[in-house]
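Reopening this ticket.

The earlier resolution said the output was attached, but the attachment link was broken on my side. Pasting everything inline this time so it's all in one place.
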Amino acid sequence: MSKTEQGGGLLSRRVKIGRAEAVAAIVGTIIGAGVFTLPYMAIHAGLGIAAIWLIIVSFLILYLHLAFGEIVLRTKKEFRLPGYVGHYLGQPAKKFVLITTFLTFAFSLLLYLLLGAQFLKVIVQTIWPHLNSPQGILVLFMWFFLSLVILGKSRGIARVNFLLSLLLLILFVVIIAFAFPHFQIANINLFHFSGSWGWLIPYGIIFYSLNGLVAIPEAAKILEKHEGQRRSLKKVVIIGSLIPVIFYFFFVVAVMGASGAATTLEAIQGLQGILGPVVVLLGAGLGFLAVATSYLIFASYIKNSFVHDFQWSSSIASFLVVIGPLLLYFLQMKDILALISFLGGMLGGLEGIMLILVFKQAKQRSELQPAYSLPLGKHWSYWLIAFLLIGALCQTFLIIK
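Inline output:
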């Protein structure tokens, strides 16, 4: 084999690895804390309603992901969403996004720590039943370990996320495979309205569970590093966005069909009496890996946003990202379902609206020729903004109610 052929083979292998890491960055970010509340949500809203919302929100999220990817491809300078808002919409809009960014990052990382500690506790108690493991100690342990990774280089984060995402998908398959033999059609209810507004409950939770906007710039950066260009970003975004949808559906059906009314908020504990300690241990491992991957990518995104978008020093950005969720934990904020609904419906909706506004400006003031271009008619953008705004208001109303 000639040196030219060897070089071509190495380049091709590097491109494939880069695309795989980029997809893993998106999948690892999306499959996080929210997925474990989906079976519980489906039990109380009905699988039919949950499936309808899953389809609707999947298309909405995919469009937002692709729109963000196109914004990245049209802009010369590297930003995160707040930076793109300031670049295209001005400083007042950027300051507004700064507030939502702070809220989103702080509460999301707190949510990951809370769920991660719960899954870690299941793992410890399953292996060492007589060992006392207070949740506070586990939260601090998880926070310390993940903070060390965050304070390291972004390359290390990408590699850790790639490995965890691969194991995560394998564990998903294992849980689904073990749960389906215990599937009972009587455990499935298609439509169950919890009050007059019950059919709206799944929207915010599913939106949060599928939202991977924070990983789009990271995916583009990974492609740039491995390929020297980002022309395959559209394909990577589509694959990375749709993989979680498929796994979510089968995970919800498997858990719901196996545990029925005994389905718990985090999904795994309700399976213990049915599937035994081994599968529960695998499920806890699945949960821990899911929140760990999301925590790492999301923290990296926020850290880079503070540095690139707000011109803060790396040390200040790292300090805020590391200390923020820990401070919130000591404020005793522990209502997981309310956090997810608020993050998905309200903050996610406002984030989506700002993204659409940026997208319109990026198309009009494009600095680079993108590898792809999405349609964005005048009426289509209005409908998107109206839908996101109504969704945000409805979720806020449900939380208050």
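Reporter confirms the inline version is readable. The chain has a mean pLDDT of 81. The first helix runs from residue 3 to 30.
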